[in-house]
Amino acid sequence: MDSEFEHQLQKLRDKIGSKTPHQQQHAAMLLAVEETITEQKAAVEPASYFAALLTLMEQQSGSGSNALSNAIIFLLSVVLPHVSASMLRAKFTTMMAVLSQSLDLASADVALLRSVISCLETVLLAQDASSWRQPIAQGTLRSLMQLSTDSKPKIRKRAQEAVSSLLSRPPPPTAIHPAAHIASRFVLEMLANAKADPQAAMHTLQLVKQTKMLWPADEFEGLCAALMQLPRLNTPYVATLAFQALETVFASAGESLDEDQFRDLLISVIDLKPNSSDSATSEAWFNIIQKGYIAYAQIGAEACFQSLPDLIDLVLPDIELGKSSTRDAATQCVWALIRECIPDSKLGSDGVQAIIKVLAGGLSYRYRGSWALVFLLIAALFQRLGKFAHPSMDAVAKEVANMRMEPEFQFKDEADAVLGAAIRAVGPQVFLEILPLNLDGSQSQDNVGRAWLLPLMKSHIRNAPLGYFVSTMLPLADKLSVQSQQFVSQNRELEAKIYNALSQQVWALLSGFCNVPVDILDSFTVGFAERLANEILEVPATRSAICGALQTLLTAVHALAHTESANGPITQQQALAAEMHLARFAPDYLAQLFNVFALSPGNGRGYLMDTITAFLAVITPGEVNATFAKVCAMLDQALKSHKPPTAAELTEQYLEAHPPPTAHTMTDLVIVMVPYLDTEHAQMLVRAAFVLANQ
Fold first, then answer.
1. FRET pair for 153, CA 20 to 30 Å: which of 138, 610, 662, 672?
2. What is the CA radius of gyration of the chain?
3. pTM (global) more than 0.85
4. How many angstroms separate the CA atoms of 86 and 105, rounded?
5. CA distance 293 to 250
6. How far apart are CA 273 and CA 265, in angstroms?
7. How many CB atoms are closer than 10 A to CB 491?
């Protein structure tokens, strides 16, 4: 007997001393059943409890003893979930006859009725399709559905849960439940009477809303038509529930309707669009439009796409006029339409131009209170279009940038998100053709300086050609640096600092260009590698940015080279070739990095160690061992002259300005190589450690 079942029984046994009569009755009945099982020397298992309780229930049938019947059925509701499905199928007719009688006799007893519903749910869930064709099963389902509209909340809630569970889990291998027709006819009957009995209609809608099932194809249109008539009753809560129920029903629409039927259904839903001031109903309507059009895109992608401009044009005013929750729901709806309903084959089509035109209208002053939401949608469109956003959305990007530069503009972060999405979509080269930086005094179509784009670009460049940085951005950084030096010579300190900062910001873009560029073999040349190595050695200001970029490049390429994935920007073979190419430069870089590491204060050289580790991961074991041997030799030499640091040399102020002792530096370098060593060279480290410990 499983522990969960035993735990439930023990909780019931403990109620024998309860002050509540029905709890005492339940415990006493359980103890009596267990005594019977013991006397009969039956196995102590759920099947034995089930057999004993069923016998007692048959004996009590017609006796009029409600208290005993209540206790037996309650215990059955506990035991049945642990009984095998085969046994429940074998005893189906007996169980249904007994429970159906109890369903009628105890209609006024809430607690008993809930137990009966639980028993019926468990028994019916175990049945196969043939059992569901029996009148007793179908009649029981109708009774449960009738209870799902009961005026008593606890009974209604439990019945709705049971019906939803049964209809959502058809017996294998059927996809549509054998009793689906019974359910749909009941729903149609209740909804047809909605005007006379709105309460029952609302309860029925709650049931439909929570029941995820495939509705019969021949009744699907009728069900949708009935649901769409309800908002016309001008009862807000009924209208909201009708849209929510329709949203659930739409989940199976693709299985039940063809493309033309689906289109007509969506047109009918669009005609029911509520007023923006009715927030609850509007939110439900937006949800069904969102789910409906996403489903429509699966069966009629072309027709769905062609309808998008008009639909977005219809919804966009709600982003301006509705309440906060309505604006959010409208935004979410349009966002989903952009993401899910524009086919890949249409990314550069005239239909997209129409969508862009509609969304660009949201940048007008009329929408000023909702610009944050409009920007969210424009960013989503950039992301969906990718490279096809150029030149279609060039004017939109310029407009957003111009708005962003207004001194009192309140949505700078949201505008930055749009421009960031544009950078990712079209790449930095095209983006800077649309919005030039204008930092170096060169002539362009506009003279607006856009230095503020540099920090933004840093966060959004990825998979861009490294060659563009080498050919365009690096000369720009050099030009800005030269200009800064000229200002220094002229004692124009402020201008010098500004241009130096701009040069550093251009260098900071290198990390983005090193985020898996597609042209590593062509652009990471000997000349470029030497330039980076010299910068690391000679220019502390750019050292951190360059090391971070190299670390990004090496780590990403190494990961792609040793992972089988079809989703990367380059293939595994390309990554392996790129890793071998970069490994050729590793010995020279490691030598430079070791030197800089040895001369750097201990608290500020963590990034150097990270870069060293990245290079060690791409070189061969033989090269690692050779490098390790050299470092060990330097460590051995350093240990011979090593003296423990004085108290003054251990102060925080001293450590921030001076490098650690050479022995400590060499030890750090040796330790970082350990994961890449073979056994022989690892033993060299152990010997060095003993020497250091003895000192």
1. 138
2. 37
3. no
4. 28
5. 10
6. 13
7. 7
